[in-house]
Write a structure and sequence with these properties.
This protein is mainly beta. The protein has one domain (3-315): Beta-galactosidase, Chain A, domain 5 (Distorted Sandwich). It is 5% helix and 38% strand. The chain has three helices and 18 strands. The protein has helices spanning 124-129, 252-258, 310-313, and strands at residues 11-14, 35-39, 44-49, 77-78, 100-101, 114-120, 134-142, 148-156, 164-175, 182-185, 191-194, 200-203, 214-218, 224-229, 234-241, 246-250, 270-284, 289-300. The strands form three sheets. It has an eight-stranded antiparallel sheet with strand order 5-6-7-8-18-15-14-10, with no helix packed on it. The chain has a seven-stranded antiparallel sheet with strand order 4-9-17-16-13-11-12, with no helix packed on it. The longest helix has 7 residues, at 252-258. The protein is globular. Mean pLDDT is 87; it is low at 1-7, 16-31 and 313-317. The structure holds 6-O-phosphono-beta-D-glucopyranose. 6-O-phosphono-beta-D-glucopyranose is lined by residues 70, 83, 90-91, 171, 195, 215, 247, 249.
Length: 317
């Protein structure tokens, strides 16, 4: 696909349409403004709006929509390598590949209002970089209450009998009112690796709020994490399955200035809270499939506050 086409998302799926086609671009009735947009480039969700048309995801005003740069914002998918912890490019190649819309997808789940199925398979050139055959299917679904669900299915289809191991992340760039007004619930007291200190392990103490650069990989996290925006009086809730880790990242001012595709002050309006399988990785034998799911929703803040002590909810839903 020519890079110019990358400026257009392939899909705007709206919950207000009863017969929403998964790849429609047409404007739909405004009764309910909930919608998402996804690019073929990287299978990258770049927009998720609530019923008032409010944007829930952050995308930088300086984001570059041209290969080989991943889009700065939205929900990049990191596969098959998280970060630079391996031989591949930073965060793996999936976010820099052109995915295709899967034909004849399975029927729309009855509780969903719109969805799209995308697939990534290795080309011969890709195979030289990562010598494995796989099928990576991503379904992006809009739920009846405006929640955004991403389901990844990765299957080993190697014919040489070899297993492969990968790491994975949904990097959620959440749009926040002001980083100083944000608190995370669900990760207190957990162990984390500090990516700013050679991945040394520490244990979180006290409330998780933000006043400087943060790049932490929380280990063995609960399935539910809440990100409370005190100013907006709303809470993002991330529910995840098959994704035991959670990276929390904000570049803060110095790193923001050093990034070509990120505005100098934009760190104040975003926070990445990821749903990841990065620490142990996932190993699949030929024929095996892995599934990693996350559901994002937004609720009034009173819903979550004080309810997400990890000790109580580690194994809860
Ligand atoms: C986060 C990492 O997931 O992604 C950070 O923990 C990294 O270390 C950030 O800086 C952004 O990565 P990139 O490659 O998109 O600039």
């Amino acid at each position: 696909m020519a890079p110019s086409i990358l400026r257009e998302p392939i899909c705007k799926a709206h919950s207000s349409s009863s017969n929403t086609s998964s790849i429609t671009l047409a404007p739909l009735p405004k009764k309910n403004g909930v919608e998402f947009a996804v690019y073929l480039y990287g299978a990258h969700v770049t927009s998720w709006k609530n019923e008032h048309g409010g944007e829930m995801l952050f995308v930088s005003s300086k984001a570059i929509f041209k290969p080989p740069t991943a889009i700065r914002g939205g929900i990049p998918i990191c596969f098959p390598q998280f970060s630079n912890l391996g031989p591949l490019e930073q965060h793996g190649f999936a976010r820099n590949k052109h995915w295709t819309v899967e034909k004849d997808p399975p029927p729309l789940p009855s509780e969903s209002t719109a969805f799209i199925d995308l697939i990534l398979k290795p080309s011969e050139d890709d195979f030289k970089i990562w010598p494995h055959r796989y099928e990576f299917r991503l379904r992006v679904t809009l739920g009846p209450d405006g929640e955004l669900l991403l389901t990844s299915r990765i299957r080993n289809i190697n014919t040489d009998g070899k297993p492969f191991t990968f790491t994975f992340a949904y990097r959620n760039y959440l749009s926040v009112s002001d980083i100083g007004e944000i608190r995370i619930e669900g990760l207190e007291t957990l162990h984390y690796l500090d990516n700013l200190q050679n991945r040394e392990q520490f244990t979180e103490q006290g409330a998780i709020t933000f006043e400087e650069e943060v790049d932490k990989t929380y280990l063995g996290t609960p399935r539910k994490i809440a990100i409370i925006d005190h100013e907006k009086k709303m809470t993002f809730v991330i529910r995840k399955d098959g994704l035991p880790d959670a990276v929390v990242w904000n570049p803060w001012d110095k790193k923001a200035k050093a990034m070509a595709d990120f505005g100098d002050d934009e760190y104040k309006r975003m926070l990445c809270v990821e749903a990841d399988a990065v620490e142990k990785g996932v190993t699949l034998k030929p024929g095996e499939e892995w599934k990693g799911k996350q559901k994002l929703c937004v609720v009034p803040s009173s819903y979550c506050s004080g309810q997400l002590d990890p000790q109580k909810v580690l194994h809860g839903s």
